[in-house]
């Protein structure tokens, strides 16, 4: 019996140890479950916080970009106004003739104009001198040619005849010794050593006069004959 009691005691102790181990295992499992639940909850909260933070950062970036665009637009408008003001000021200087960008090219142009004017004046003088020399050469050549022609003749100097009477033809009329004669007038023609004859003027040319005698015959006399006195005429 005592031996049996020992055996029973051992069995009882072994059973108790098994219950303790089971209880410990159960406690350990419960703690693990709590730990996992806590971890899952914390991960969910962290994910929600990250989304909110990203949205907040995105809105901040958008606001910053909008401010930068506004600043850029303002700077661009300011630069345009300043540039326009500079252009207007420079235009006023040009109109007033004070801008260096206007005065320097103008001075260059005026200098070039003066040089070209001076060159043109020199060229003009040279052209006039050339024309004058050419004219004088032609006159001298003409004189020399005339002298050569006169020196080549084996004849006596020609005696110029003096006109005794004034006679000429103008526009179909005859002027003779202060009197005018026209076509259709009756004249008296006198020639040396011949009797005067009556005639009617029919044609007056540049160097001759045609007339018709009473018998119907036609004759002519040269104006040079009237000038030399070979013939004379008068109104009949």
Brief digest:
This protein has three helices and eight strands, in the order ααβββββββαβ.
SS-based structural class?
alpha+beta
Q: For the report, how would you describe the main beta sheet?
A: 5 strands, antiparallel
- Count structural domains: 3
Side-by-side strand order of the widest sheet = 7-6-5-4-8
Q: So how many helices?
A: 3
Structure report:
The radius of gyration is 72 Å and the shape is rod-shaped. It has three helices and eight strands, in the order ααβββββββαβ. It has 236 residues and is an alpha+beta fold. It has three domains: 8-98; 100-149; 167-235, Roll (SH3 type barrels), CATH 2.30.30. A hairpin with a 2-residue loop joins β1 (167-170) and β2.
Supply database-style keywords:
SH3 type barrels, disordered N terminus, 3 domains, five-stranded antiparallel sheet, single chain, rod-shaped, 236 residues, three-stranded antiparallel sheet
Q: Topology, please?
A:
Elements: H1 2-96, H2 100-152, E1 167-170, E2 173-176, E3 179-181, E4 186-191, E5 197-204, E6 208-212, E7 218-222, H3 223-228, E8 231-235
């Amino acid at each position: 019996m005592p031996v049996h009691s020992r055996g029973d005691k051992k069995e009882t102790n072994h059973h108790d140890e098994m219950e303790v181990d089971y209880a410990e295992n159960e406690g350990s499992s419960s703690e693990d479950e709590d730990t996992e639940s806590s971890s899952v909850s914390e991960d969910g909260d962290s994910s929600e916080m990250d989304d909110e933070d990203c949205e907040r950062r995105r809105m901040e970036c958008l606001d910053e970009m909008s401010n930068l665009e506004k600043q850029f637009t303002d700077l661009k408008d300011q630069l345009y106004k300043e540039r326009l003001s500079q252009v207007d000021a420079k235009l006023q200087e040009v109109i007033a003739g004070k801008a260096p960008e206007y005065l320097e090219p103008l001075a260059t142009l005026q200098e070039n104009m003066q040089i070209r004017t001076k060159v043109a004046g020199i060229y003009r003088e040279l052209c006039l001198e050339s024309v004058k020399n050419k004219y004088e050469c032609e006159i001298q050549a003409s004189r020399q040619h005339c002298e050569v022609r006169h020196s080549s003749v084996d004849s006596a100097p020609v005696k110029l005849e003096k006109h005794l009477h004034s006679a000429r033809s103008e526009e179909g009329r005859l002027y003779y010794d202060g009197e005018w004669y026209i076509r259709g007038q009756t004249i008296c023609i006198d020639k040396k050593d011949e009797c005067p004859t009556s005639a009617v003027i029919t044609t007056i040319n540049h160097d001759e006069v045609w007339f018709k005698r009473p018998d119907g015959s036609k004759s002519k006399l040269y104006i040079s004959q009237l000038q030399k006195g070979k013939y004379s005429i008068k109104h009949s």
